Structure formats: structure tokens, C-alpha cells
Amino acid sequence: MIRILPALMLLLGAVAAQAQTTPFDMSGERPKGEAPAVPQIIAPQTTTPQAEPPKETVPPVAVPQTSIPQTAAPQVTPPLVIAPPAVTPQTAAPQAVTPVTPAQAMPQVAPNAKQAAAATSAFRRYVVPFAKLRLEGEADRKSWSIYLTPEQASSPAKFSFAYQNAVVVAPEASQLTVLLNDRVVHQQPIGSSDNESDVSFDVPRGLLQPGANLLTFEATQRHRVDCDIPSTYELWSDIDPARTYLSFAGREAEKLSTTDAIRAIGIDGVGKTQFNLVVPALAQPGTTKPILRLAQGLALLSGMPNETFSFDTDALPAPGPGKMTVVVGTPAELQPVFSVPASAQNGALATFATDPRSGQQLLLISGPSWQAISSAIDMVVSPTDRDPDTRRDLLVTQRWSAPDAPLIYSNTSLSFEQLGVRTTEFSGRRFHTSFNVAIPSDFYANAYGEATILLDAAYAKDVRPGSHIDVYVNGSIATTKPITVTGGGIFRQLPIRITMRHFKPGLNTITLEALLLADEDSTCAPAATSSTTPRFALFDTSQLRVPDFARVAQRPNLAALAGTGYPYNRQTEATALFIDRADADTLSATATLLGQMALVAGHPIALEPIASPSTVGTRNALFIGSVSQLPSTIFTQMNISASSQVAWRPPAPGQGGTPEASVTIADWRSRISGGMLQGQMESFQQWMHRNFDITLSSLRFIPGSEQVFTPSNANSFLIAQEANPTNDATWTVVTSPSAGDLRAGIEAMTAQNTWSQISGRITVYSGKTGKIDTVPVSRFSFVVSQPWSLTNYRLIAANWLSSNILSYAFLFVVGSFLLGVSTASVLSKIGRRE
Known about the structure:
The protein is of the alpha+beta class. α6 packs parallel to α8 (370-381). The longest helix is centred in the last third of the chain and has 25 residues, at 805-829. The radius of gyration is 34 Å and the shape is globular.
């Protein structure tokens, strides 16, 4: 019995020790969806001073994070890894703890070399082509495409994003959905108002494909407490572009095998794309033309919305997301920068190569001479070439807004399905959806004519009068259709007319919004905000119908330049290009501008660099450079003050501008005799414009002359357009006070959200405030762009007379007088006389 007692005590001690190594599991109390708590690792530097381990516990052992090899994992025992319950401070909230094996605990201590390599080898592709992505209102949807190489499409991928929403968004009734190639890959409640939440999930194998892949974010959001329409404007969810990306396992996804991989350059964490060109012979005159052709080709191949170009001569820039290094030159020129393969000594070479010093992949374009290099550039750019006379059917926008916008040239009817709008049922209070269409550069119907939406929709019985459907074109309200019938209804091809004055050459965004009132919103019961009963339905059989409109180009017209690259997109003869100096900043600015122009034109623009404006002749021309370096005759032709070449100097950093006098319009009005009458006249003009769309500029016989423009020192960039001295070609000037301002201004103005604001005859930009101002066109000349047609000329006359009302009235009076005279003459010769 005495011998058995020690054995029993030893057995009981072993059972107690085994029970102590298994932590208490509170998984049954864990809220639904909460991840288990990660066990803590004992280390002297992380031990909480308020809590002491039990005396019988083995003292913790400090394990250096870099000293544990992979084979050492079995040697680590659980008591040395898992913290005993007594270490947890008494004031801490209880956490669920699950048993962890030594192998599971090892990454918490120190990952071995193989695991560290696997963690860092993931290749990351940012996917949001905007600096900010916000899903607004009760229902919103954003779609665009991302281009993947075959290596990326075949690699295991994980999608990650971070988001934050407004505090008023009700998580129990709001949902965020992510789709890839129209397949739902993730869906979750929206509930991250305190801070950004990171979400990550695996992409199903085989879903990604080489080439374009459609990515869609959808949000359905409801308010926590309010049921009225104004409260819907408080609903938003922001997607963080810097934390939204595709990550691919392994190094194979980083491989760039063919020049088609230029399309997969992607973007960085703020939605920008940058091509870094290293050209040692940049200062040589013969390199400008092929280099700028290459820049346009790269811009077209990538198709990204926020592209910039930079030039260097003697060093490779650092690699990064959304960046591509392009090395151009002969083997001798590139010797200090990059070791060129021997094959470049024999002929043109365009391929991806790896820099042995930095390990980055770059696009190498080389050859024994610059003639061979030009041939290599043609190999890269030729897939983007297109005959300027070939009519386009689409304006490519899918890299930031899918689908591509159809180009409308004449009487056209497009269904909402063709425009990318789906049939949708909606249970909220404010429904909105948008689609894009494109208009050619010779659009001339800004003063007459109407497009029509033939709406197929339905609304529920509880929708009351006072509800209405609004249509916006490019952010401006175009028309409103009230709902006046109670008891519900179905609209079948309901015509909603849109005045054509809101359209412009190039891309146009049309937004349809339904504001729905209901009796239950007045009481706003607790469950009313999360109701799923549909109130409104929009059907994809709805149509947009655009009638025939006048087709004649105008000169000047910066809106046409920004819309489609006109007039440089249509000419077969090379555009004369004058650059004041071939330094890195000026060439970077020029390449960025031409890349954006090529993108909207749909093909590279042929260029011919010139050394003097006198050699332009009757060709269309571009003048790019700092204001002090451009010939003064150009500014005279542009109706820009010649003194600007000396006086236009924005304040230096840290230097305040000239203080403005604290004077108001009311002060001057009181000083001028007849101030009260002048105020009444201004009020009358505003009333006429608001109610009848009549302004003083329309009350004229013929357009007035242009006024001389003087840029303010608050402006840092200017683009202007006018006819040449012989009025048979178009000149465009792009200038700034310095080359640095020129580069910064062009990079800002070619961004996707600002490029469309270029219009009129002059557009100026302030780098300090970000403000953009335009000078409208007062006098322009017509440029024939279509074959002679009586219908087209009738439409041109109708639009011109609508813009010049007094001329129309005068012609009407003259016509009536002639009609009366001719009628009297005829009647005097017929009939019976007494």
C-alpha cells in the first residue's frame, strides 16, 4: 500500500499537468463571426508587470525571432509558448483562447527563412484607378476593368480591400458586394464607421483571365434612423485605394514576357500610372520625334486615366507599383546605365529585360542607330495606329468606367442594356444610376434640339405625388419628370426630353435619379429604414434616343480638343510641334499632354518638330514651353497680352501675393450714377436667363470680338487655342511661367477628373488652389467636316440663329416683309377689278 501511494500521487500530478496545458475554451460565448483570440507568447520584454505567473510555472524563455530554424519547431514545448491564464491582467476583458500546437505557434515566435520568403514574395497589383472611391446614397455601383498578364491570371490570387462608412449607415440593412467578371466573390454587411476595416479573401481559381477583367463594387445602404430623402445624402462608404489590391503568390506573376504586358502596368496606391523613360541622348534633336511617338503608344496601350511621363538621362529610377521604366538608346549610349544584349548591335530590339543590379524589369528599346530604334518603337506602337479617317464606334473608358462609351454621330437609339444599365428593383427613397455616351468633335447643337429617354419603369402603390424623376447631363440638371398619379403605375416608353445644350464633344455622363416619397416615411417606424419592399423598378428596355444634330467643327474649341483631340486627331498631315527647349521637365510635360490627347483621339498623333514658328505654314500646330521662351507673335495671335511674358510670375514659395483691397461690388455700385438702375438691369438679366435661357450674348446680330486676356499671377498654367494668321489652321498654346510649373500644370490638367473641364478658348489653372477658370468663345469660324448636305446645313443654320436671336428676328421680319410684298404683287395681277 505504501509503495502504491507514491505511484498514485505521481499519476494524479501528471493528469493535473496535462489539464493545465489545455487552456479554458470560451468559444461557446464568442460572438458570431468573431475570430478566435491569438495566444500570447511569453517573453521577458512583453510580460505584464501587474500580473505574476504562478510560482510552480516554468519561467518564460526568451526566444530570439531570427534564431529558430525550421527544424527546431518540434523542440518547442507548449508550456513555453502558451501563456498561462494567470498572466492575463485582472482588468482585461476576457478573451477566448483556443489550443495551439507548437507548429501553429511557431509563426508567432519567429518565422523561418522559407516562411519569410513566402510572405514577402506575394506580388501586389493595386486596382482602384482613382485617388478616392466613394459609394454614395442608398444604392451605388462602380465598375471598371483591370488588365492581367497570363502569368497573373494563372497564379493563385487573393483580393484585399479596406473600407470605412458613415456612422449613420445601418449595418443590419446595408451590404457591400464585390464582383469579378460579373461573379459575386464577396458580400458582407457594411459596419465599419469607427475606422477602416481590412477585408481579404481568396479569388476562386479559374475566375481571372488573361486580358481585361471586370471589377465591380456595389453598395446597398440604409439610414439608421431617418426616412426622408435628404438623409440619403448622408450615406457613404469609402474604399481606400492604397489598401485595395490583388496579391499573387510566387514570383511568376511579376514576369513580363511580351510587350503586350504594357497593358498590365496598372496603377499605384493613389490611382496614378507613371512611365519613366531613360534616354541618354535626350538632348539630341533627332530623338524628340520617335520618343514622343513612343510616349503616345505607351499611353494608348495602357489606357489608364491618370498617366504621367518622366525623362531621365543617366540613372534608372526606383521601381514601384504602377510604374514602368523604359530604357531607349543605342548600346553605346546605354552602356553607363544598362548592359544591352549583343543582339541590339545587329538590329532593332524591343523586349523586357531585367537589370542585374536592382533586379527590376524594364522595357528595353535599342538598336545600332536611331533609325533602328525608330523601327523598334514602331514595333511597340503599331498596334495602336489607326487611319484618322476611320470612324470609331467607341470611346475607350473601360479602365476607369465600364463599359466603353458608344460614339453617337447621328439619329441613334440605344437601349439601357447596351449602355450597361441593368434591370433593377429598388426599395429606398433615392435611386440613381449613370451611363456614358460620346459625341464627335464637330458637334454643333448647343442651342437647340432635344434628346429623349424612353423610360420603362414602375412605381409602387405607396409612392405619392410630389415624387419625381430627374435627369442630369455632366452634373447639370437637364430635366424633371413629376409623378402625379397615385396608386402605383407603369411607365412604358415614357418620353423624358433632354436639351442638347448640356452635351459636349467627347465623353458625356447621363445620370437618372428617382426621388420617391411615401406616407410611411412621414411616421418613420423603427423598421421602415430597412424595408425591402420594392418601391421602384427600372427596366433595361429603356432607351436613349438622340436625333440628328448639326455637324460642323468650330475654331477655336478647347472642349473638342479635350473630348477627342480635335483637330489633331483628324489630320493626315503631321502636326507642327514647337518646343522651346528639350529639357527633362518640358519633354515630360509634352509627353504627358500628347499621351492624353492620343488616348481621347484613339490613335497616336503624327508630329513634326519645328525649330521656328515661321515654318508652320498652313498646318495645325502645337506650341509648348515656358511663357518667356515662346515667340511674342504667338501670344498676339492668341489674344493674350504680350506683357504676360514679363509680368506673369506667380509668387515664390513663402512669398505672399499682393494684398487685395477690401472692396465690394456694392461699394462701386453706390459710387456710380444710376447704380440702382444698373442693379435692376442685372436682376432682369438673371431672370431672363433663368426663365427663358436668354442672355445678353444671345441678343446680338453677330458674335462680338475677342477681348485680350491677361493671366493672373495666381495662375500657374494656361492652354489657349485660336486660328492661325491666315485662318486656315488651328494653333494651340500650352504654357506656364516656368518649365517646372508647366510639368506640374499638365500633370494636374490631364488627370481624369480635370481633363474634361478644359473648354472655351482659354483655360487657366492655379497650382496653389487647384482652381480652373475658362474664357468662353465669343467669335469662332466654321470648319467643314462633313460632305455637303441640305439637312446638315439646315441644322447648322437653326443652331446659329438660336444663338443669335436678334439676327433671327431681323431675318424673320425681312422674310415677312418680302412675303407681304410678293403676295401683294401677285394679288394685284389677278382677280376682278372694279
